[in-house]
Amino acid sequence: MKKRKLLILTVVGFVAGGLLAEEQNRPNRLMVKGNPLSIVNTVRTGYDDNPYRNEDSDGSFFIEDSLDLAYRAALSARTDASIKVRLNADSDDEDNGFYPNVHGVLNHAVSPRLLLQFFDTLRRGNRNGDVDNENERADYWNNKVGLNADYVLTSKDRLGVSASHQFEDNDNISDIYDYVRYNVGASWSRELLPDRTQLSLNYDRAMIDYDKLSDYDADSVYGKIGHTFNPNWNGYALAGATYVTRDGRDNTAEPKFGAGLAWLPSPRTRLSVDGSYSYEQTDNSEYSGQTQTEVSLGVEHDLTARITLKSAFRYRHSDYDDDDRNYGWDEGDTEDDRYEWDTRVSYKINRINFVELGYKYAEKDSDTSDDWDQNRVSIGWRVEI
Q: I want to staple 270 with a disulfide (CB 3.0 to 4.6 A). Which of 43, 83, 246, 300 is the partner?
């Protein structure tokens, strides 16, 4: 049945893409300015030497299909809506999976000064590599719904408030991670230099309630500045602190930092780098939270008019304190490291068809759980409408 689902998804993606391409080529059609609908369907096959991300997993050949749909519409002069859908199905020697991801946004201008935004994100994913899954998928559902309000005070100043509700429901194998999270926030931003420099002061309160782990609240206050140096350079920096309130444990104040740069050295090349240090939720079930250091690098380069290279690297270092431990006391501080590298080369056959080669590498080194590494190679065919 699951293999049939994968086949159906593949056929639907290509049929829908073909029908839309045919419709776009018909003369004298009535269309709004710009096509509000886009369709991207990608079919990949390849080999994964550790699909379940554990110490003893056997390698497996796989086939996967990803169908991406995006639609945006102006409902009125003051209201617009957009929706993005990704339907991902995969099959390997051991199991089959289906992972939908839906993100919807509704914007409404109450007045020229007040803009409201309502959003909802529903996704299904897996925690392979975080739990002892013994060659079984550790899947979950996650849903986040929220409301943002942005008010224009002056030509240079804005006020913002936000509120959101998020929950995660895991399969039995990983239900220890089930939680409900509430966030409320407020911000003030000012344009220091027109179209170049913006400063903001931000406050965010997160309240995380686990079903089986220790709960905590986190209040973050930080300032952020963004600056466009020239058409090819822009960046940002932020600094602040997070005060963590734990149930039955010591409360602590944690620093919060972040910075990023984006560089376009030429129309054919795009580079970016980001770094952060902050207190966050964790995927380590022995702790409720972690102090996280993260660095990411990205590059995209058009080798020729038809060949494009995309590569992204991410490193995350997590420090765990006894104050965050869910079981026992005075076990000593621990840490773990994660590495991810994803590289793809695509070749443009024509306006809508592409072929691609891909390689992914992931690794986890942990003091509290199994270490693992993963290599995944693939070849794919992508259709863009």
A: 300
